[in-house]
């Protein structure tokens, strides 16, 4: 009997610290197709995400933290129901442009990877509330990030960011901006004025002058 037959009707699958440690994505999970709402495969030494993940059309929460994943499938955008995606502690170097097709995505956490930039298509994520890209190698945030109108929290500590795009000032719901240990020398002049919801801005370990915080 297949696992798909046993788990028919299940909406949550959690294989965290499973005694069986796979190197590839379990085919049995893909056979469940529309039944899965939450999938957690944390710490399973997965090396990739197969194209067939697009079968999980009702998947809302995907957690693949602390694996060995180096890239994301190009058809990632077909997961149209996805609201939460966690990929912390992998080896991802780039995010596909198709990321912008995940229009229902609310929380994207991909800290501790090898990213050097973010795709411009991230601006299509109008429902995104949390963006965590800390501990990567990102040099700049795309101008399109200013179109993520629902953003409340940006975590981008431990990167190589030198300046913020002026479009950040469009994020009127932004409450927390963390840029510790980057190379930020200045922030957009109107940031504190335009981001009226901003409650926390953290810039420890940056060569920024206090002049930028003068009213």
UniProtKB/TrEMBL annotation:
On the tree of life, the source organism's domain of life is Eukaryota
InterPro entries according to UniProt: Leu-rich_rpt, Leu-rich_rpt_typical-subtyp, LRR_dom_sf, LRR_domain-containing, LRR_R13L4/SHOC2-like
Known Pfam families for this protein? Answer: LRR_1, LRR_14
The record ties this protein, via Gene3D superfamilies, to: Ribonuclease Inhibitor (3.80.10.10)
Keyword Repeat present in the record's keywords: the answer is yes
Q: Name one GO cellular component term.
A: cytoplasm
User: Which UniProt keyword terms apply here?
Assistant: Leucine-rich repeat, Repeat
Name by which UniProt lists this protein: Plant intracellular Ras-group-related LRR protein 7
The protein's organism comes out as: Sesamum calycinum
């Amino acid at each position: 009997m297949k696992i798909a037959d046993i788990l028919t009707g299940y909406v949550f699958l959690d294989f965290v610290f499973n005694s069986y440690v796979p190197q590839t994505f379990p085919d049995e999970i893909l056979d469940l197709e529309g039944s899965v709402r939450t999938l957690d495969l944390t710490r399973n030494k997965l090396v990739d995400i197969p194209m067939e993940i697009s079968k999980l059309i009702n998947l809302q929460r995907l957690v693949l933290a602390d694996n060995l994943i180096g890239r994301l499938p190009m058809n990632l955008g077909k997961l149209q129901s996805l609201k939460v995606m966690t990929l912390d502690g992998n080896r991802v170097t780039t995010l596909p442009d198709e990321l912008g097709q995940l229009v229902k995505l609310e929380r994207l956490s991909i800290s501790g990877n090898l990213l050097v930039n973010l795709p411009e298509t991230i601006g299509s994520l109008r429902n995104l509330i949390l963006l965590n890209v800390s501990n990567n190698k990102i040099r700049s945030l795309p101008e399109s990030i200013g179109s993520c109108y629902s953003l409340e929290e940006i975590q981008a500590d431990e990167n190589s960011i030198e300046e913020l795009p002026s479009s950040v000032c469009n994020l009127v719901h932004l409450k927390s901006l963390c840029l510790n240990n980057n190379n930020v020398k200045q922030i957009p002049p109107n940031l504190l004025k335009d981001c009226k919801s901003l409650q926390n801005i953290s810039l420890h370990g940056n060569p920024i002058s206090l002049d930028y915080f003068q009213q």
